[in-house]
Write a structure and sequence with these properties.
The structure is a homodimer. In chain A, helix 1 (5-12) packs antiparallel against helix 2 (28-45), helix 2 packs across helix 3 (61-73) and helix 6 packs across helix 7 (188-200). The first copy, chain A, is 31% helix and 29% strand. The N and C termini of chain A lie far apart (58 Å). By secondary structure, chain A is an alpha/beta fold. Chain A is built from 14 helices and 29 strands. In chain A, the strands form five sheets. Chain A has a 15-stranded mixed β-sheet that branches. A seven-stranded mixed β-sheet of chain A has the order 7-6-4-5-9-10-21, with helices on both faces. In chain A, strand 23 and strand 24 form a beta hairpin. Chain A folds into three domains: 1-9 and 24-132, Rossmann fold, CATH 3.40.50; 156-376, ANL, N-terminal domain (Rossmann fold), CATH 3.40.50; 377-475, ANL, C-terminal domain (GMP Synthetase, Chain A, domain 3), CATH 3.30.300. Chains A and B meet through strand 1, helix 1 and helix 6 of A and strand 1, helix 1 and helix 6 of B.
Chain lengths: 476, 476
């Protein structure tokens, strides 16, 4: 049990800035007041402790108010990706049992309340959580995973707390730190910025969208000291530069796979302190982070955060240094499990250890190298894309007999999905199939290319061998 | 469960400096190696997880090795004040059931092992705690309290962890921080420096004794960035100054009562960033800390650390702002209880709230003001001195019929104990009585003056009214 974070911040450091955007500067005291108003509105709607309420919004001050307000009540916040298809959003609402979904845009659903509408709702007195129980679920984020069926990752207050603490013990803390939020709050990389803000008492700078030039400007003005990004964002920011970053900017936390060597060299040249990191929704963000002074460990994701344990396993045995196997992690930021999905929870959580499905090794000094993201995970512009999910959609089309999806390199997005399809008796075109996917999947999941083939490579157990598909691409 | 702190540090930041003294610089990797050797020696002695082992040492690298080594095994470290009388030390050993006491000096006891002797002992393989269970007892420190009978405060790994985390969220963290240890490790103010060092990965500078000139030198050389002190130490350091402190020195954490206003003004003049703090053995150090930017709140101990809750109570009711009552605190750094003393534990710990016995109030903004330390506590040169304990010793003398002790102001030590004695049929002298105390009490507890009187002020219930004794002094 520790005090409600924002409330405690408003008490301890009321005048420090909590949020900036291009038009406002909001102190912790003011954010607390706004949050209480929103919480009173949720009480008016009948929201109670333990209810699930979904948020389908782009980063904004309002979104922050909504998230904190739900925590004041003790409701569980379901964070939804605004790029999901209507069908995907509804599936999550249904599965989670969400009572409402607060959204920026008009959304056709009896549970939906558009922000403009919510803002006008009445208020009613309620009882706020003055203490957070670290074991309570604070947020849910769905992730598709290997089976293609989305699983709701339950992140507790403790998960977020320990993640923030592990990070501060690695990156340090200065009173005037300000963290740029250019990654979405519906991803753990973005949400963790909000959590760190109220735990550390530092500012968050919210930008409406990723604009490399604008962000560079903020950095040169000394307005932000840290930011979270993926390689493609850093790439675009570097392209705009003609002078090195000022020393006020002290941390560029880069997730979603190793930073390419040429980009890393540019970062050194322009004085960009890159911290490469490995983490996932199931660990409430960072598991391991590589500090700039270990830059020579090219391709490594660094060492674990202080509160985390990492080991490499194969067939139940712990491997030695430099032997590749599954990355298994333990620590208090590991999720409580998947929402109402005991089977999938038990499949990955054993005795407190999380079986990530990712493949990697640790060198003699304990630096982690991630070789393959779990189940051929495709990371496209920072979004996780699971082949199995796309394959499942393709197989719903009456013309498709078999489907196999892999990620292929892309200059802009890092990777994009590429599909191989075996047709049955009926005919279809690449364009028709892509349109079919478009109706069912977020745009970034729709295969950029679909190739028709006579068969797919399968092993003796008839399991699709996606690494063979990769070879087909390379050979082509 | 989180990874063993020193071991994890040796893994994550092996080359950072863990300890400095005037002759050595020791990295975390080296401290880990030395600690493993000491742990192997303790295994050779037969020390097991859960055993109590006492440490009766002055601050030194060896003392640090011993403390960490015992934690590697999972033994409980009893930290003993080297200024205690032989009788006091033995009482603690007996009460705690300590198997050994490691001491700098020769100590006549079958459990005692002098450091020089210990250093020569053989080694044996053991199993180290790779994870710390936050609920396990890590250390015991005896504190005398109201009844005069010492109580062993059980501090868990979690207490130390949360104390360190609460502090970092208040004071921030820089990679090159180094904390001067001029207060003893057998007090929580000193021990908490060691804990922060391995949790944060920062250095500790150990000095053999408090030498104001030498410490100023270290500060001007930029070798230390933070230190813990009591007012009398700061007073002496200020006296030596002829130029302001450099900006590399960023925190002077001052406990043991408010810093006098004139001293505070000198600190402003000499650029000494004073953080006044309120804490106790039972809370593993800091509960509240006043930052320099709230200097206008003269006499305040500041606001609670992030993880702590403070309220003011009187007769079971929570008081409003500016009303004085008992200071009651809650949070994960509150002790587990008193060692084998359920009665005293239940007397102070209720529903997670610690009844400190200290009197104070909070102003409208939530700043804490401590009016009276518990049970007329005397703080002399940073040491806690309990009147009841001295009175109990005086009453053991055959000539003494009644005794009452209070603290009187002292330029050097802040306060010193002063005794009032009513004699019975026998006669004695002040000098004889002081000598009698000297044999039974640590020197700093021996009354500086003893005045013989005909009666002591008592209330209707025959309870000694120490505040009346204070008036006697003021009137004299």
């Amino acid at each position: 049990m520790i005090p409600n974070w924002l409330r405690q911040r408003a008490h301890l450091t009321p005048n420090r800035v909590a949020l900036y955007d291009d038009t406002q500067v909001i102190s912790f005291a003011e954010l607390h007041e706004r949050t209480v108003k929103r919480a009173r509105q949720f009480v008016y709607l009948g929201v109670k402790k333990g209810d699930v309420v979904a948020v389908l919004m782009k980063n904004s001050v309002h979104m922050v108010e909504v998230i904190h307000a739900l925590h004041y009540i003790g409701a569980i916040v379901l964070l939804q990706n605004v790029r999901l298809s209507v069908e995907e959003v509804k599936w999550q609402l249904e599965h989670s049992g969400a009572r409402f979904v607060i959204c920026d845009e008009l959304f056709q659903d009896e549970r939906a309340i558009q922000w403009n509408e919510f803002a006008q709702i009445g208020e009613r007195d309620g009882e706020w959580q003055t203490m957070y129980n670290l074991d309570d679920v604070a947020t849910i984020m769905y992730t598709s995973g290997t089976t293609g069926k989305p699983k709701g990752v339950m992140q507790t207050y403790g998960n977020h707390w320990w993640s923030a603490i592990g990070s501060v013990l690695n990156l340090g803390l200065r009173e005037n730190d300000c963290w740029l939020a250019a990654v979405p709050f519906f991803h753990v990389s973005g949400l963790s910025i909000l959590m760190r803000s109220v735990i550390y008492g530092i500012g968050v700078y919210i930008v409406p969208s990723f604009d490399a030039e604008r962000i560079n400007e903020l950095i040169f003005q000394g307005k932000i000291s840290m930011m979270s990004a993926v390689s493609t964002m850093v790439q675009q920011m570097v392209r705009e530069l003609n002078k090195p970053y000022p020393p006020t900017f002290r941390c560029m936390l880069v997730g979603g796979g190793p930073v390419p060597q040429p980009l890393l060299q540019s970062c050194v040249r322009w004085n960009i302190p890159v911290y490469q990191t490995y983490g996932m929704t199931e660990t409430a963000s960072q598991v391991a982070t590589l500090s700039p002074d270990a830059r020579h460990k090219h391709g490594s994701a660094g060492k674990p955060l202080f509160h985390m344990h990492i080991r490499i396993e194969k067939e139940g045995k712990q491997l030695n240094a430099n032997e590749a196997g599954e990355i298994v992690v333990k620590g208090p930021s590991v999720m409580k499990g998947y929402w109402q999905n005991e089977q999938e929870t038990n499949a990955v959580l054993k005795d407190g250890w999380l079986y990530t499905g990712d493949i990697g090794y640790m060198d003699e000094e304990g630096f982690l190298y991630v070789l393959d993201r779990r189940s051929d995970l495709i990371i496209s512009g920072g979004e996780n894309v699971y082949p199995a999910e796309i394959e499942a959609v393709l197989l719903q089309h009456e013309a498709v007999k078999e489907a196999g999806v892999i990620g292929v390199p892309d200059e802009r997005w890092g990777q994009v999905p590429f599909a191989f399809v075996v047709l049955g008796d009926q005919m279809t075109t690449e364009e028709q199939l892509r349109q079919f996917c478009m109706n069912k999947l977020a745009k970034y999941k729709v295969p950029k290319r679909i190739r028709f083939v006579n068969h797919l490579p399968r092993n003796a157990a008839n399991k699709l061998m996606r690494h063979e598909l990769k070879k087909w691409i390379e050979e082509a």
